[in-house]
Each structure stands twice: as C-alpha cells, then as structure tokens.
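Exercise (ungraded).
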Amino acid sequence: MLKTLCELNGTSGREDAVRDFILAALPENTTYQIDALGNVLVDKKGAARPKNKVALFSHMDEVGFIITYITDDGFLKFAPVGGVDARVIFGKAVSVGARAIPGVVGGKAVHQLTKDEKGSVPEIENMVIDIGACTKTEAESLVSLGDVAYFRSDYVEFGDGFIKAKAIDDRAGVQILLDMLKSDLPYDMTFCFTVQEEIGTRGATAATFTVRPDYALVIESTTAADLPDVSGHKQVCKVGGGAVVGFMDRGTVYDKTLYDFAHALAAEKQIPCQTKTLIAGGNDAAAIHKTAGGVRTLAISVPCRYIHSGACVASKNDIKSVAALTKTLAEALCNAENH
Amino acid sequence: METKELLKLLCAAPGVSGDEAAARETVKTLFAPLGEVKTDALGNVLCTYTGTGHGRKILLDAHLDQIGLCVLEITPEGFLRTAPCGGADKRVLCGAEVTVHGKQDLYGVVTSTPPHLQKDGDEKTLPDTVCIDIGLAADEAKTLVAAGDRVSLRYSFTELFNELVSAPALDDRAGIAVLYRALEILKIRGCGDTVTVVCSTREETTEGGAKSAAFNAQADLCIAVDVSFAKTPDAKAEDCGELSKGPMIGFAPSLTHDVSVGLRQIAAEQQIPYQIEVMGGSSGTNADVIAAEAGGVKTGLLSVPLRYMHTGIEVVSVKDVENTAQLLANYILYGGLSSC
C-alpha cells in the first residue's frame, strides 16, 4: 500500500487523490467528516471508551511545484510548494498537472557554464520545466498557470530493507494510521489526515480546533543525515535506528512527560526508538500543541534520508517501529490518568 | 524498428566510459544484419558494409560510451564514494538515482545533505565528493562493489511532446542510431563505397576508441556523428543550435572544410533541414582525433542537437535523428565524390 500511496500525487492544497484513496480505504465501522480545508477527520469506535481523547495526525500533502509562467518558447517556470532544495530539482524528471504530463527540469549544458556558474546549481527562479512544447500557445493548450507538478519517481525496494520513493513524508504516516484504522482498537480514537502541512502546518490548526483532543500524536517522517562526512550530532537521527521521538524541533517544544514516557514505553516493549540530536525540522505538532487552548502533543517519526526530494530513502523496519510505538503509546494515553 | 524504439533500445544498455560491455552487446546484435561485425583491442564495435563497386573506404563514427561515475572506495558506513567518469554534470547529482555496476547491478541514490546542515548561501553549493547510498552496510557492500566499478545515471526513457525523447546516454546513442539508420539506407540503395561504422569506446574520457579505430580503418573519408548543444532559455542563441531544426553541420579549423561545405550543399539540394555549427578551434568530438590519425583523414562532423548534455534527462528530437541519418546517407551517395 505504501507504494500506491507514495505514487499518488498531492501537493499542498491539492491533496484530492490522497484524500480519495483514504476515504476508499476506510473500514465500515468508522465515521468521518471532511472540513472546509479538506482535512479528513475520522472517528473509530474501540472496545471501550477512553479516559482521554487521543487523536493521531498524519499529513496528506507532499512538497512539489506550481506553474507560475509560460515562456514564449513553451517552457514552464515554477515555484516550489513547500521547502525543496534547488539541488534536488535540477536535472530531474517531473510530471505536470492532472494529466501527469512528463517533463524535465534543466538548463544550459555544463560545458557552457562560466567559472562562477560551475560550482553551484541555478536559482529555482531560473530553472524551467521542459515538456517538449515549442511555443507558448502550444504549452498553454497542455498546461494552465496554477497547475502543480511533482517529482516523477517510482517506488523502489533496495539494499537491506530500504525503500526509495517520493512523498514518504508523510505517506508512511498515512499508511500507519490507515493500518490502525483497519485493526480492532481497544479504545475509541480519532484519526486526522491533514492538508497543507508543507506550507506551514495549516490544516492541523483547523483540525485540532474541531477535534479538541486531550492528547495528539503526530506520525511523521523526519530528516536523517546519517551520511558520510556528516559527523556526530549533526546526523540528527539514523535510518535503521528505529522510531524517532525528539524533545524539540524548530516548531515545537514537546511535552517532557510524554517524551520520557514514550522512550520508557519503547524500551519496555523493545521497540527500537531514538531521539534527535539536533534541533531541526518541524511538523504539524507546531500547530496542534498551541491550538484550542493547548494539546499535549508528541511526534513519532520515520527517519528519512533526502527528505523533500524525489528520492526519499527510508527503512521498512523503521516504519514498523513507528507503527508499533504509535499503537502502544496511543492505547496507553487513552487510559492514562490525567496529570 | 522505429527510430524511437531504436533510441530506447540503445539507451537502455549502460556503457560508462571504459566499461561499455553491456552497450557493446546491444550494438553487436543490432548491427549484425547490416554487415560484418567485429570488435577490436579497445572494445570498439565495427560493422562493415562492403560496397557494390570499387568505391572509397568510409568510416562513420559515433561513440558508444556515456558519462557516469566510478567508485573510489566504500566508506565505513557502507556508502560508495565516487568520482566523475567523463564530464558528468555535478549540478544534477544531488538526489539522483543511479545504477551501480558491481558484481550485479545495484540501485542507489546520490546522497544530498539536508538543508538544516547548510549555512546561508550554501543551498546552491555543490558538495566536493559524491557518495552513493545503496542501503547496505560496508561488509555487505564490499562483497558486491569494488573500487573502479562504474555507476550510471538510472535509465528511464520518457516521451515529451513534438517527438522529443528524454533519457540518459542519448549522448551519443543518438549518434549510434544515426549510423544505424544511415547504414540501412546505404545498404538498401546499394552504395558502391565500403562503409565501416565504428561505435567507439572512451570518448568521454580519452577519445582512445576513435583514435585506434581510425588508425585501423585507413579510411578515405570519415564522418563523426555526435550530439551538440540545443538552445535552452538560459543559454545564448549564438552558442547553440535548436532542437527539431535538423542536423548541425560542423565547421571548424580541425575539420575538413570541403566536407563541411559538401554536407551543407547536399542538405540544401535534398531539402533536409540543417543548421550550421561553427567552432573556433577543435570540435571537442572524436572528429578531432580521427582527422589527425593514420597520416590524416578527411573528416566531417554532424551533430544531433541535444538539451541538458551530460545529465540523466538529455533530450533529443526523433526527427533530428532521422534527418541526420538522411543527410549522412545522401552525402555518401551523392556528395562525397566531388569533394574527396
């Protein structure tokens, strides 16, 4: 299922294909609403009523591009949707619009660069998408301004249990929540599939206001920099090191009690779990924990190399660890004494 | 086989400079129906069509190899540290998908450092070394990959509008497609000349394949077929040809002027679209080494216009490939005698 989810296209504000997939996958014993922003908020009955309302969040959107201008010679100018490093865009294949028109992002040949140009990639505003159109008129018959574009990238399994795909951030989270929804739960829980995380955690703000949980768990993907030439704490976390539960990132200072509890629970249940060794990244928790009077919030993430590129790399074992910790922690919080 | 299918077949077989084995097998099979196929000491593939008359000996060259990377070492973490093999465009490598040609072909991703580790202004700067993630620990990696193994940009073949296609290695498999099409025409037309096609190795690194082939061929005339720059929005018009406007006929001090003029004349007479590409010194192609080999060979150059050279998304026009083949065949059939 993760293959299908990652190969769906849904950049921020255009999550329709992912939303449709989720709705089709919902089991019968659930109720849901779709709010004005397009968040899907699902309630599932468990065996018992919980002491606390626990909501799990994953975001449907992925980073991508939006077509901003068509040149006289039929090339498409674009802006990134969400944070995309110029270096992972240049020279890559993309697909444009609902018809998934194939295109490539390029510029003049390496042989034609000046000395100054040689050491760096062009600015994103100087890149173009080439779909093979010869003229502006021809391009306009195929693509409209405001159409979105995506990395063209298939799902590949490689190495020792590794996967490569676009949009592992956060389709891995979506998959984990869908799997939980399909299982028998001991307590009632709420599942929020949010929009517009990549452009500033906007969907989660609205969703949290509606759901009003006591506890929120954000199921995410986070940057792993366990690479050669990156040393010590700068690696942040490691692919293969298990679920990532950090104490702080650029959007959230996490609930210390929850943080300690999650790590203790993981140790007790022998679920591989790691912290983050650098204050980096951010996710829907940034919005959730400050919304509707405040929500005790924790993020559990899949460590992911080359996140926000067409070739995100993660480990299947880490995804299993995130799923296991999510289920265990959510159940424990449903029944936790308030403190 | 349609030209598009021909390009697809040729690009699918990897051949990073110096390790052209897979590409070599593909072209050996491809050219077998057109003439006598041989390989030589440098791994060149030669296909000779013996002419019906007592004509000239003509050598047609396109290079078999493609740019890529080669493995320097396996890091303690199991990543492959690599260096360019040929002039790979470093700008496209971050996050690029590759195939590592070890004991078996392995999938890999070129590492990219996440933005949080970058300082201001760093986001455009390219890393000094390029490492490849193959998802294996060092011990396992060492059983499958060794220093010197080649790495190619992962094959994918995409059709764009207006009969444009995008794939890695179109530089210079597009040239090989031209030679195949041209030799087909010459054979059907019963050309009187004896024509040897060479799919030459190591152009991207040393041009050694073409130099050796030219020595062995002792040809009266040689035409090299390569790719050249097609205009992109950020390039100067005067530095480029244009896609879909026909073959680029090379004019350069290192090329035989009469051949260049003859090619232009035949293109005009036969109403084949063409463009003129003028270079101030040498051409930067196999034509330069061929011309000076074996006591000197009259040499011309035809180039298929190509966008995004030395990347994994090179783009050519199928029509340009066909028109280049038409011009090449027609020049040999009608134009070559007066000038050589």
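Further reading is listed at the end of the chapter. For now, observe: The domain at 64-151 of chain A is CATH 2.40.30.40 (Elongation Factor Tu (Ef-tu); domain 3). Chain A has a mean pLDDT of 96.
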